[in-house]
Amino acid sequence: PVRNRDKIIGLIQLNARRKGRFSPVVMGYLEEIANQLGLSLMQKRYEEALAESEQNFRTFAEEFTQGIMINEKGVQPIIYANKALLALFDMKSMDEFASRPYQERYTEDSVAFLEERRLRDQNGLPNPDEFELKIKKQDGSVRIVELTNREIIWNGENKRLTIFEDVTEQRHLE
Questions:
Q1: How far apart, in whole angstroms, are the C-alpha atoms of residue 19 and residue 24?
Q2: Is the dihedral of CA 154, 157, 163, 164 positive or negative?
Q3: What is the per-residue pLDDT across 85-122, written as a single tens digit (0 to 9) for each?
Q4: Which phi and psi angles does 9 have, rounded to 5°?
Q5: What is the mean pLDDT of residues 136-143?
Q6: Taking all residues of the chain, what is their mean pLDDT, rounded to a whole number?
Q7: Phi–psi pair at 130, nearest 5 degrees
Q8: Residue 117's closest CA among 86, 162, 52?
Q9: CA distance 31 to 2
Q10: What are the C-alpha distances in Å from 66 to residues 14, 49, 123, 135, 148?
Q11: Between the ranges 17-21, 33-37, 139-143, where is the mean pLDDT highest?
Q12: What is the DSSP letter of 75?
């Protein structure tokens, strides 16, 4: 049997016309080879499952209709931004988005609010997880967005996940 720990995941069968063709030493080698094959097969299955899981996350994040951003606590550096977030800010790429100072992406009052949040973070004071900001698009128009923050673990480190939802039309109707 080909095993991974106590689980049989396959079988190697060798037949000989003569009885006793395979000595106990040869059988020991063959069993060790089968065990190594079992480890290799399971490793391959784990890698395939991980790749599928990563692809599922990428698909989810890129097709999500709200903007998603992952960054250090504070405002920068930005680690990840999905397509919806880039579209919200009229940006074409993550590099373009991340290279622009946040002060250029938000209105003056929103920049002041973000600075206050940053100072509260630095001093270990609580901040609301949900709030509104006004963003500036490339064409100069202003949009109102609701943000929801959550602390997450990303690559083994604490990061901030922020969801952006454009609520401009709702606020104008109110």
A1: 13
A2: negative
A3: 999 999 999 999 888 888 899 999 999 999 998 899 88
A4: -115, 0
A5: 92
A6: 89
A7: -130, 135
A8: 162
A9: 8
A10: 58, 27, 30, 15, 11
A11: 139-143
A12: S
Beta bridge partners of 71: 78, 160
Q: How far separated are the first and last CA of the chain, in Å rounded?
A: 69
As a whole number, mean pLDDT of residues 20-33 equals 85
Structure confidence at residue 23 as a pLDDT band (50, 70, 90): confident
Cα–Cα distance, 3 to 38 (Å, whole number): 5
Q: Cβ distance 133 to 110 under 8 Å? A: yes
Q: What is the DSSP string of 38-69?
A: HHHHHHHHHHHHHHHHHHHHHHHHHH-SSEEE
